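Annex B, item 7. Sequence and C-alpha cells for protein A, then protein B.
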Amino acid sequence: MNVLFITLDQFRGDSYGAAGHPVVTTPTLDRLAREGVRLARHYSQAAPCSPGRAALYTGTYQMNNRVVANGTPLAARFDNIATLARRAGYVPTLFGYTDQGIDPFQSDGFDDPRLDSYDGVLPGFAIGHYLPESQATWVAYLRELGFDVPYGWAAALRGEPDRPADTSLTSFLTTKFLEWLDTRDSGWFAHLSYLRPHPPYAAAGEYASLYDPADVALPLEPVEPAARHPLHSMALQIPASSAPHDEEAMRHLRAQYYGMISEVDANLARVVDALESRGEWRDTLIVVTSDHGDQLGDHGLIQKLGFFPQSYHILGIWRDPRLATPGRVIQQFTENVDLAPTLAHALGLEVPSQFDGRVLTPLFEGEEVEWRTSAHYEWDYRSHFIANAATPWPWDRSLSRLNLAVSVGDELAYVQFADGSARCYDLRRDPTWRTECVDAERMLHAAQDMLVWRQEHLDREFTDLLLEPSRPGRWPSAWRRDGNAPRN
C-alpha cells in the first residue's frame, strides 16, 4: 500500500465542488471525495501554519503540544506521522515544507542557525524536495527560464498571474514529486505539501482570470462596533488582517483565491494520472487536508486568525481503496488531530496514547458509535508581545492570557478568552456567528462542556499506567512484548 498525504495550505472547508460551492470547480478533489470519504465538518485545531501543522502531524491539541506561533519549536518528544510511517516500514518523503522548528535542546547551542527560524522539517521525514519559506529553488528555476523574479517569496508569488501556469510554484512542486515517483517501486509514503491557496491572493497564469469577480459572492459583514469583542475590533484595524473595504477589490481577492484552488486541483489531476498509469491507483491511500482556513473577507477579515470558523473549518478527504462503501459523507464533527491516529490504524500500528484525536475508521464504515458533539480549536496571539514582555518570568504571566479556545456544536459556539471574557453565539438562530446567546443557562452548559473537553484531553503519556509489579494500565504493546521501551 502506498500513502500520499496531501496538505493544501489555507484551504477553507466550503471552497470546493464536492462541498457544494456555487462557483469553484474542483473535479479532482470531487473525484477523491466520491471514491473515498468526505469530512463535511472537519476542523483544524490552531492557526497560523506552525500551530496548525503541529496539531495535524502529532495528533495533539495545542494545549498539549504548545506550538502556539510561527516560531514556537516543537518538542522532540512528540510522535508524528513520519515516525509512524517509519515504524510501518516506510521511508516517508517530503515534498514542500512542514514549518516545524527544531527543539532547542536538540540544537548545537544558542548560536545554532537552526534556531533562527521555524522553517524546519518534521523529524522522521526524508527529503524529496524541500521548499523553504523563501521558495528558493522555485525562484532559481524561474530565473533560469528567463523571468525577472524579485527577491522575497511573497513578491515572487504576486507575479504568478503574469507567468504561464506551468511555471507556477504548484506546478513546480508537482513536477518534483512526479520525477521522484518515476524512480520508485510500489510501497512508498510521500507528503505533498502545497503552499497554495495561501496568499498572496494571486493565481497563476490563466487561473487568474478563470473566475469573473462579478460572479463571486461578497463576504459576511462584521457586526456593529458595539457588539464586537475587543480582539475582533483590533484585528479590523491591522492592515494585514483587515479585508478590503472596496467591493471590487474584495471580489477580486476572492476570485484569485478560487483560481488558486482550481490550479491546485489541476495539478492533483497530474498526480492521479501518474498513479493510474503506474497501476497504483487501487493501491494508494490518499489523505487531503489543510493546516487552517482563511477568513476571505468574512467578518471583515482576511488571512487566518481569531475565533471565527472560517479560519478553522477546512477540507478533509480520506480516500482508501479498501473502503467497502466509498462516497460516504461524514456529518459528525471531525478534527485534524483525528488523522494521525486513523493513519496509525490504517497502517496496522498501535495507536499511541499521545494522540488526542479519535480513530475515524468506524465512521468510514458507517458504524453507530458514540462521537464528539462539538469541534474544538485554539488561537494564541502572544507571539506579537513576547519581545516586549513587561517583567520577567515568573512574576509576569500576561503572555499566558493572550489566547482563546473555541467549542463549536450544533446549536452554540462558545469562545473562552484567557483574560476571562467570553462570547457565546446562538447558531440555532443565526449560523453566521453574529447573534449572541443571552440565555445564561445555555452559556453555562457550553462553558462546562469546554472545561470537560480540556480535562479529558490533558497529556496522558504516563497517566494511564502505574509503576507496579503487574504493570497495570495502558503500556505500549511493544514494551509488553519484549520488555524494552519502544522507540520512535
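Protein B:
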Amino acid sequence: MMTNAIPKPCVFFMNSFLLKSSFFCSVFLLTFFSHAEQVKGISLGVDYLEQLEFSILKGKKVGLLTHPAGRNNTGTSTVEVFRDSEEVDLVALFGPEHGIYGDEKASVPVEDKVDHRTGLPVFSLYGKFRKPTANMLSKIDTLVIDLQDVGVRCYTYVSCMRYAMEACFENYVEVVVLDRPNPLGGQKIAGPMMDEQWMSYVGAFPMPFVHGMTIAEIALWSKKTPGVLKIDDGARKKGKLTIVPMKGWRRGMTWPQTGLAWFPTSPNIPSLDSVAGYPMTGLGAQLGKFRHGIGTKHPFRFLTFEGKDPEVVKNALDNLNIPGLSFQVKTLLDTKGENTTGVYIVLSDWNSWNPTDLAFHMMQLSALWEQPSPFGKASESESKLFNKHVGSTLWWDTLIREGSAIETEKFIANWNRESQAFRNETSRYLLY
C-alpha cells in the first residue's frame, strides 16, 4: 500500500483518529502540536511546506494547480515560491476557472498556453477538459493544489479539486493539498443539501450550500468517504493524498482575524464584502429582476429590482427581519460611469447571520413582484441551471406551485437541521 516516509522533525499528532493505521495507508497528514508552540499569525499550507523545506516534494516532478489568490502569508504567489526553491522541480501549471492569473471571464472556456512569466506549460482545467487527462499527468509525479475557496458549494474551485483528485488517483499521481482558511469561517453551515440529480461542476459535492470546511478538509472527507469521488472505489482507496495544514487558524476566525490580506479569487469577488455577499444574493438573483451589484464596486452586496423604487425594496427587506442584516439606500457609480441607486446590504451581526437566508427571501419577493412568476415561466435551460446551483428539487417544486406563498422559514429551519447532520457526519475529518 502507498505510504510516505514521514520527516521525523516535523511530525506531531493532533488526535487519535489520525493515528489509525488505515488512515495512513493512503493519506499522509503533516500535523503539529497546536498548543506546544506559539504561532504568530497564520501559517498557510504553503508556508508550512516551505518551513519543512519542501521535503515531501524532493525528487519529484511537480505540477501546481493554483490561481492569483494562491499566495503565502506575505503575499508571494505559490508559483514564485516554488520556482525560487531549489528543492522543487516545478514542471507544469494547471489553471481553474478564470485561469492562473484570474483574468479570464466567468463561464468562459480557457485554452492551454505557455506561461509568459515562467515559460512553463499551463494546462487549462476550464476549457476543452475539466478533468486532467492522462497526457497532462504523465509529465508529473505529484500535483500540488493551492486554491483559495470562498466556502460556498457552487464556487468552482472545489469542483476543480475534485476532478483533479479523481484523475490523479486513476493515474497513480500523488495529490498534495495546501490548506487555506475558509473566509466564512469554519462554523457557518447553511442552505440546502445537493440532490444527486443536480450534481454538476457548480455542485460537485453532496454538502450544504455553505459548507463550513476548508479545502483540505473537503479533500480528506472525499478521499475517505465512499461515493463522494466519482471514480472506482479501488482507485479511491489506493490514491495517495498528502495534506499540508495551516498553523494558527481556528474555526471561529473571520478573515480579518487571520491578519491575511485578501487577494481577489475571481473578477467578481474583489473583496471580503463580496465573499459574504456571494451566498447571500447569488442564488436570489439567478432568475427574475433582482440584480446584485455586478458592475458596481459592491458585487453581490448591492441590490436593485427593475421597476421598483429602492425605498420600496429596502422596506420589503427590512420587514423580513432577517437576523444579522440591515439595509441602506445608496447611490453608486457603475462601470459605465453612471449613477445607480439601490440597496446596500449591511452585515450588522456576524454571529446571528445565516449566509443563505436572504437569497431565498429574494426569490419569494420575485415571485410576489413579478407576474407571471419568473420561476414558473423559466425555460428548461434556465430551470436546470437554477437547480444545479440551488440543489433542492423540493424547493423548486414548491416555489413553482406556491409562488410568493411559499413558507421560506420552514425550508430554512429544515436546511439548518440537515446542515447540522452533515457537520456531525463529517466532524471526524475536520482538522482544526
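Comment on protein B: Confidence is low (pLDDT under 50) at residues 1-25, 33-39.
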